Amino acid sequence: MSTPSDDLRLADIESEQEYVSMLYGRLDDLRELSSKRLAGSLRETGGTHQMRSERDTSVAMYSDQLAQYSAVENGLCFGRLDFHTDDRFYIGRIGLFDEDKEYEPLLMDWRAPAARPFYLATAAAPDGVRRRRHLRTKQRRVVGFDDEVLDINSVDPSRHTEGLTGEATLLAAVNASRTGQMGDIVATIQAEQDRIIRTELNGVVVVQGGPGTGKTAVALHRAAYLLYTHRRQLAKRGVLVVGPNSTFLRYIGQVLPSLGETGVLLSTVGELFPGLTAVGREPAATAALKGRVEMADVVAHAIKDRQEAPALVEVPFEQDVLRLDRRAITAARGRARRTRKPHNEARRAFAREIISTLASQAVGRLGRHLLDQADIDDIRRELREDAEVRAAIDRLWPTLTPQKLLEDLYSSPKRLAKATPRLSADERALLVRPRGAAWTPADVPLLDEAAELLGEDDTEAKARAERQRRQAIDYAQGVLDILDLEDDADPDILMATDLVDAYRLAERHGAERYETAAERAAADRTWTFGHVIVDEAQELSPMAWRTLMRRCPSKSMTVVGDIAQTGDIAGASSWHEVLSPYVMDRWKLTELTVNYRTPSEIMAVAADVLASVDPELVPPTSVRDSGVEPWSARVPAVAEALPALVTAEVSAIGDGKLAVIVPVERVAALRSVVPGASDDLDAQVVVLGVADAKGLEFDSVLVVDPAGILAESPRGASDLYVALTRATQRLGVVHEDDLPAVLSRLKSG
Ligand SMILES: Nc1ncnc2c1ncn2[C@@H]1O[C@H](COP(=O)(O)OP(=O)(O)OP(=O)(O)O)[C@@H](O)[C@H]1O
C-alpha cells in the first residue's frame, strides 16, 4: 500500500521528469542546429584566404559543439537548488538557455559561479539555499532524488568535519561497482574538493592528499573548470594532464569527455618527445640515475665534447692541403660558443671562422697580390661547397640530433667517461647501452634537455614539409585535371578549377586542418601550455620536472600527489624540494583529508603501514565502513592457491573488478596461473605490479607476497601502502613467508 509520502514522491518524480525531458528536447534541438551548420560549412568551397580560415574555424567550432552535446547526454541534469526567495535553479553538465525568454537559464553549468552553493552550502552556512536536491537519472529517465533541507536546526555540533554534501547520493556513488574506467564526480563534489577545483588559474597549486581522497578526480574537474572559466586563454595554448603510465591514462581517459571537454592532452612524460615512443625497459637504478638533476650537466658536457679541437686537421683542397691547427680551431670554437646560441645554431659561426682561416691560407699560397676581391670571394665560395672542407667542419662541430647525441654517448665508454666526471665508475656503468636499444621513459627528459641545448636543426623537417606540400599540390592538380576533362563537354557547367585552384585544394586537404590545440601540441616539442596538471606528481624525477617546467613557462600548474605514496626511487620526498628550484616558495599547498575509496576496515590496516613509512604522516579518514574485515591467508605456494582464491573473490564481487597486486618480478608467472587474468583494465581480473596499479581502484584486491613487495625497493613500504589502498570493498593478503609485522592487524582467513 502506498503512503501519502510515497505518492508525493512519485508526483515529484513526475514533475522532475517533465522538466528533464524538456532539457533533453532542448539538447536535441541544439544538436540538430549544430549538425546543420556543420554540414553547411563543409559544403562551402573557394573564397579568399580569410573566408577559408573563417570557415575552418566554424567547422572546428560546430564539430566541438556536437562532440560536447553527445558527451553530456548521460546525467545531463543532476541537481536542483531551491532558494528562500523561491528562486530555483537546475544544475547540470552544461548550461542551457531559453532563447524565447531572453536567454533565461534552464540549466546551470556546474562550473558557473551561481552553481557553487550546490557544492558549498551547508546547514550552518546555507547561502540562501533552502533545499538541495540530487536527481538520479538513468538515460533520460528520472529514477529518484535525495533532498537535503539546509536548516540550522539540523546541524550536528558533535561532527568535526564540515559534513558531507548530498550524503546519500555520495555514498551510493562510492559504493557502486567499479567498471575499469574512472567516472566523473560532478554530481557529488565535496566542499573541500570544490575549493581546490575553483582555485584561480595563476601560480602553482599543490593538492596533497592520501589515497582515495579524490586527487585525480579533483585535478580533472579542475581542468574542466579552468577551460570553462578561461576558455579564450586556454583553448589556444591547451591544457596538459600528465599521468604516471599509459594504463592510468586509459583509466582516466573518459572523465574529461564526459564533462564535455575534449581539447586536453593526456600524456606521460615518456610521451612528450614527438616522433619517439619510449617503450624500452631498464633497471630501476639506471632510471633513477637518469632522473638526477646532475644529468643536465652530463648532457651539456656531452655536447661540448663534440666540439672537438685536435692538434691538427689537414684539409685537401684542390691540388693543395690546407691545415687547421688547434689554435685556429679553438679560436673558431670560442667565437661560436660566444654567440651563446644552441650548438646546431652556433655551427654557422664556427663554419664561417674556419672558412675564413682556410681562405686566408689558400689566398696566401696563391699570392694575395695576384688576386682581386672577386677571386677571393670565389675561393671562399669554393671552400664552402667543398666536400672535404664540409667533412672537416662536420667532424669538428657536427650537426647533432638529441637521439644521435645520446646514442653516441651511451654506446661509447670513452665519451661517457669524459661527460660524467662526477659519477663513480659503477654509476657510469649503469648508463652504458648498445646502439639501437629502445628508448626508455627516463631517456625522454634527457633527450628534451639535449634538444634545448642543441637547438632545433629543422632543415630536414622543413625540406620534408616542403616536399609534402609540393606532393599535395601535384595531387590536387591531378584531381582538378580529371574533373576538368570530365566536364569538358559543357562549357556552361562551372568548372572545379573555377572555384578552387590546386594550391588551395591542397591546403584545404592538408593534415593541419581542424586540429585542436591538444593535437598541435602533441606534435610539437616546443609547444608551451596554458596550464599543466601533474598527477601522481610524487613519482617524477628532477629531470622530468625540468621537462615539464619548460612546457609551462607561465608556471600555471596543478600538482597532485601524495608524498607518502612515492614509489619511484627517483621520486620526491617533499614538495618544497621539487618546486623551489622553479618557483621558490611561490606555491600554494592545499590538502584533501577524506578517503572516498577505501573503507575504514581496510584503512586501519594501511594506516599501520603508513606509520612505518613515517609516524608523522596522517592517513585520510574513510567516508564509510564496508562491514567486511580484510583478511590474510598463508599458503604453501601462491601459484597453486591463487586460482581458487581468485574464483572465491570473483563470486563475492558479482560483476565488479578484482586486482591481484604482486611483486613486479612475479607478475608474468602469476598472470599465467590466474584464469582469464590480463593487464587490460576492461577485464574482470587483472594481475599487476604496484607501479602499474598506481592511481587505480578495484572492488576487491588480493595483495600477494607483501614481504616481496617490501623487499623489492627502498620505497617498499610506500608500495605496500599503495597496494593495500586500491580496494573499494574487499581486501585479502596472500603470503608464503611470515606475514610482515606491519600487517599483524590482519585476521587470518
Ligand atoms: N566527491 C566525490 N564523489 C563521489 N566519488 C568521489 C568523490 N571524490 C572522490 N570520489 C571517488 O573516490 C575514488 C578515489 O578518487 P581518486 O582516484 O581521484 O583518488 P586519489 O586521491 O587520486 O587516489 P590515489 O592517491 O590513491 O590515486 C574514485 O572512485 C572517485 O570517483
Could you tell me the strand content as a percent range?
Answer: 15-25%
Question: Residue ranges: pLDDT <50 for 5 or more in a row?
Answer: 483-499
Structural class: alpha/beta
Termini Cα gap: 45 Å
Q: List the bound ligands.
A: adenosine-5'-triphosphate
Count the beta strands: 22
**Strands of the biggest beta sheet: in what spatial order?**
3-4-2-1-5-6
Count of separate structural domains: 5
**Number of DSSP helices?**
31
Overall spatial form: globular
Radius of gyration: 32 Å
Helix content: 40-55%
Mean pLDDT over the full residue set: 88
Largest sheet: 6 strands, mixed
GO molecular function: 3'-5' DNA helicase activity; ATP binding; DNA binding; hydrolase activity
Binding site for ATP: 209-216
Protein name: Superfamily I DNA and RNA helicase-like protein
Pfam families: AAA_19 (PF13245)
How are the secondary structure elements laid out?
Blueprint: H1 4-43, H2 49-71, E1 77-83, E2 88-92, E3 96-98, E4 104-109, H3 117-120, E5 129-138, E6 141-149, H4 167-175, H5 191-197, E7 204-209, H6 215-229, H7 231-237, E8 239-242, H8 246-252, H9 255-258, E9 264-267, H10 284-291, H11 295-305, E10 312-317, E11 320-325, H12 326-338, H13 343-366, H14 373-385, H15 387-396, H16 402-410, H17 413-419, H18 425-431, H19 443-454, H20 459-487, H21 496-499, H22 502-508, H23 517-522, E12 531-534, H24 542-550, E13 557-561, H25 575-583, E14 587-592, E15 594-595, H26 600-613, E16 621-622, E17 631-634, H27 638-653, E18 658-662, H28 667-673, E19 685-689, H29 690-693, E20 698-704, H30 706-712, H31 716-724, E21 727-735, E22 747-748
Parallel strand pairs: 2-4, 7-13, 7-14, 8-9, 8-12, 12-13, 15-16, 17-21, 17-22, 18-19, 18-20, 20-21
Antiparallel strand pairs: 1-2, 1-5, 3-4, 5-6, 10-11
Helix pairs in contact: 1-2, 5-6, 6-7, 11-17, 11-19, 12-13, 13-14, 16-19, 19-24, 20-22, 26-31, 30-31
Bound molecules: adenosine-5'-triphosphate.
Adenosine-5'-triphosphate binds at residues 170, 173-174, 183, 185, 188-190, 193, 209, 211-217, 562, 565, 596-597, 695, 697, 725.
Organism: Saccharothrix espanaensis (strain ATCC 51144 / DSM 44229 / JCM 9112 / NBRC 15066 / NRRL 15764)
GO molecular function, one term: 3'-5' DNA helicase activity
Binding site for ATP: 209-216
